[in-house]
């Protein structure tokens, strides 16, 4: 699945390495720092939720794409990739979410 995101991860890496804020949104946003990128992820997540509840499928897909794009950039800035997320999801395969939650240590 993450192969489909490889071109996006590559262009983000390329922009971070070589682009400037005048010609690249990735470079412009990254130059504002991790907190601003994290804030954008939060905003896009909220917009995705709103679209899920109130908008047509095409709008929801668009907001989800915005969210995944900004999340991919956030991960990259933390030295992580969608492969790391994919590996974590693979690790969880076969474990019921209900069982996992029940097995958590008491807080
Ligand atoms: N997938 C995306 C992508 N999705 C969304 N966006 C941009 O994300 C921005 C956020 O949109 P919003 O309307 O939410 O925000 P805004 O009001 O413009 O932002 P603020 O100023 O309020 O923070 C818009 O400028 C979108 O165009 C993207 N910008 C870039 N990419 C990918 O990144 C590549 C490199 O882009 P550049 O770095 O611009 O060359 C592109 O070729 C695409 O593959």
TrEMBL record:
The keyword RNA-binding does not apply. It catalyses: 1-(5-phospho-beta-D-ribosyl)-ATP + H2O = 1-(5-phospho-beta-D-ribosyl)-5'-AMP + diphosphate + H(+). The gene is hisE. It is found in: Cytoplasm. GO terms for biological process: L-histidine biosynthetic process. Belongs to the PRA-PH family. This is Phosphoribosyl-ATP pyrophosphatase. Its main location: cytoplasm.
């Amino acid at each position: 699945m993450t192969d489909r995101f490889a071109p996006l991860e590559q262009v983000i890496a390329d922009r971070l390495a070589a682009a400037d804020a005048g010609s690249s949104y990735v470079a412009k946003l990254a130059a504002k720092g991790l907190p601003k990128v994290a804030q954008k992820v939060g905003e896009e997540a909220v917009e995705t939720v709103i679209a899920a509840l109130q908008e047509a499928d095409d709008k929801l897909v668009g907001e989800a794409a915005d969210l995944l794009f900004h999340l991919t950039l956030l991960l990259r800035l933390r030295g992580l990739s969608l492969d790391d997320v994919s590996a974590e999801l693979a690790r969880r395969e076969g474990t019921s979410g209900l069982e996992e939650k029940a097995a958590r240590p008491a807080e």
